[in-house]
Amino acid sequence: MRGTSMTAILVVEDEDAIRGIFSRFLAGKGYQVSEARNGQDAIAQATRQAFDVIIMDIRMPTLDGLSAYQQIHGMCGAKVMLITGYQLAADVQAQLEADGVRYLHKPVLLKDLETALNELLGSGQAKTATPDDASDATTPPDESEPTA
User: Fold this and answer.
1) Model confidence pLDDT, tens digit, residues 105-129
2) What domains sit in the chain, N to C, each tagged with a CATH number?
3) Is residue 130 predicted with pLDDT exceeding 80?
4) Radius of gyration, alpha carbons of the chain
5) Alpha-carbon torsion 100, 42, 122, 29, what sign?
6) Is the Cβ–Cβ distance between 26 and 136 less than 8 Å?
7) What are the angstrom distances between the C-alpha of 20 and each of 37, 48, 67?
8) Is-contact 29 55, C-beta < 8 A?
9) Are the C-beta atoms of residues 10 and 54 closer than 8 Å to each other?
């Protein structure tokens, strides 16, 4: 929540497995994580709670991520990161870049999600890693990264 040392993140993804992987990973890094299944749910949650970052899939039922982003963008100060398995149209890509929206293409490596999140938050705002973070249960012993 804003005003505390913990960064609040909303993970919006219609696929339960991916949403769960992202949420557990981010919670393990010390973030306060909430979840939504679609854009409509994301908008409802963003009106009730202040989020620092919203990580949102683009293609979802009920209300897609781009439509939800357009509504959320004007109503709260959350930074947005979009996730997609599809190529973005040039005009959409240009608008997102102009708005300062980060986006990642699936499959997403968790280390890439963390890097993009730290860049989005900027220096001084990202949660500082602790020694406990080194024992990331989502990373197999062979150092390969799970994807979502």
Assistant:
1) 999 999 999 999 999 898 433 333 3
2) 8-126 (3.40.50.2300)
3) no
4) 15
5) negative
6) no
7) 11, 22, 23
8) no
9) yes
